[in-house]
Amino acid sequence: MKVVLYMAITANGYIAKENNETPWSDEEWESFSTKVKEIKNIVIGRKTFEIMEKGGEFQKIDNPFTVIVSNKKENNSNFVNSPEQAIDLLKEKGFSEVLVAGGGILNSSFMQKGLVDEIYLDIEPFLFGKGIKLFADNDFETKLELLETKQLSKNTIQLHYKILK
Ligand SMILES: NC(=O)c1ccc[n+]([C@@H]2O[C@H](COP(=O)([O-])OP(=O)(O)OC[C@H]3O[C@@H](n4cnc5c(N)ncnc54)[C@H](OP(=O)(O)O)[C@@H]3O)[C@@H](O)[C@H]2O)c1
């Protein structure tokens, strides 16, 4: 199972403002949507799920098979309790790739458990003094190999990395 993490970030590594606002560009959204439509699933944390549901964002990305990670017990088979369970569920459903799509707490636990194979970072032309980090504080260190860079627009660059294991 190939696990791909895809995030839009500020030039200093934030994925949202403290109030959850994300002022990302149309080009970034387009690139993210294309990746979701290719992989056809996403794994997200409970908080990101609630924000996306409220914003009607699932329809805009063609309603991928969505797995929500949460510690809470929910009467919904798409809710799981850990990153490993998310991967197992998608395996069971016949997927060979997984798209991890935030937020910072979920991203961090996938990294800490060594489950991620590739990362896409779309670097948007912003700096935030505070906000939600790409990876919530956690104890891990990872070496990367740069696979590709792509200019998504005049101001937005995409970095595509492989995680070296
Ligand atoms: N820039 C981007 O591309 C991008 C993408 C996605 C999201 N975002 C932003 O990210 C923000 C949300 O990020 P966040 O870090 O605050 O929250 P989050 O990671 O979306 O959700 C956190 C919640 O997910 C559950 N969770 C995460 N990891 C878990 C694990 N290993 N085991 C069990 N449960 C786990 C827990 O839910 P319970 O509390 O239910 O236990 C936790 O409270 C929002 O502002 C959103 O807009 C940005």
Characterize the structure shown.
With about 160 residues, the protein is an alpha/beta fold. The protein has a single domain, classed as Dihydrofolate Reductase, subunit A. Helices cover about 30% and strands about 35% of the residues. The protein is built from five helices and ten strands. Strand 9 and strand 10 form a beta hairpin. It is globular and about 45 Å long. Bound molecules: NADP nicotinamide-adenine-dinucleotide phosphate. NADP nicotinamide-adenine-dinucleotide phosphate binds near residues 72 and 105.
Tell me the name of the CATH class.
Answer: Alpha Beta
CATH topology, which one? Answer: Dihydrofolate Reductase, subunit A
> Bound small molecules, which ones?
NADP nicotinamide-adenine-dinucleotide phosphate
What is the terminal-to-terminal distance? 15 Å
